[in-house]
Amino acid sequence: MLKPVQTVQAAVGNTLLKSGATGLDVVQLQIESFQANLT
């Protein structure tokens, strides 16, 4: 099972991809989200 945070990140990533965002944009967003979770 994915953790809730990972589920949210996956949903956000899918939404960005459907909106035409690039893979790099998705990775950057997930990195920022991950770093925020560490603090």
What would your notes on this structure say?
The protein is 79% helix and 0% strand. It has 39 residues and is mainly alpha-helical. α1 runs antiparallel to α2. The longest helix is centred in the C-terminal third of the chain and has 16 residues. The chain is flat and about 30 Å long. It starts with a helix and ends with a helix. The model has no long low-confidence stretch (mean pLDDT 73).
Distance from N terminus to C terminus (CA atoms, Å) equals 23 Å
Whole-number radius of gyration?
Answer: 10 Å
Percent of sequence in beta strands: under 5%
Major β-sheet profile: none
Helical amount among residues, as a percent range? Answer: over 70%
Number of helices: 2
Summarize this structure briefly.
With 39 residues, the chain is an all-alpha fold.
Blueprint of the fold:
Elements: H1 4-18, H2 23-38
Helix pairs in contact: 1-2
Relevant terms:
79% helix, 2 helices, single chain, mainly alpha
